[in-house]
Design a protein that fits this description.
It is a single chain. The chain is α/β, with parallel strands linked by helices. The strands form 3 sheets. A 5-stranded parallel beta sheet has the order 2-1-3-4-5, sandwiched between helices. A 4-stranded antiparallel beta sheet has the order 6-7-8-9, with helices on one face. 40% of the residues lie in helices and 21% in strands.
Length: 219
Amino acid sequence: MRLLLIEDDPMIGRAARQGLGDAGFAVDWVMDGNAAERALANDVYDLAILDLGLPGQDGMTVLKGLRRSGNAVPVLIATARDAVSDRIAGLNAGADDYVLKPFDLDELIARVRALLRRHAGGASPLLECGGLVLDPVRKEVQLKGEPVSLSAREFALLEVLLRRPGAVLSREQLEDSVYGWTEEIGSNAIEVHLHNLRRKLGTQTIRNVRGVGYKVVAP
């Protein structure tokens, strides 16, 4: 899952990007409101973490512009503004949740996961399709009750597919979901990881829709 971190404090930004990356997310980081607006226009993010006190244009302006454009990406506001009126204003402007600085990284990650579940229409933290079960928190996968060992990239790809079971996702969509700006992508990297997943999970679990993309179905 790919996140956009919008934070102008270098120390907080580095810590949040590292923590979210360690939790399995691909994270792009921008430090001002204008850069955030340009990045969000690409429509490749599963969630944005937004500071309000930004240079260029403030976070509230970015949020209002995002919602006016019809972009429904979940937004988690992370700010030191602790007044109730600020929180109400942010939520009324279209934010989905609010966390106050200084925040605990584990709480931030938990709120991100909860927002992703809510946006996908699911309450359970587990992602399931037939006998295939993925636990995003514990980083565990089971197939018919048996554990399956996956690399970090294989896990990330499977999570993206399981969040939209039955939907066909193109190679470009998968790349956008699991790779950040600074990561180099081999020309056939996605295909290699998917080949390994199909070998471990069975060839009928992840299907190639020729010329279109890939989808996960009940094994």
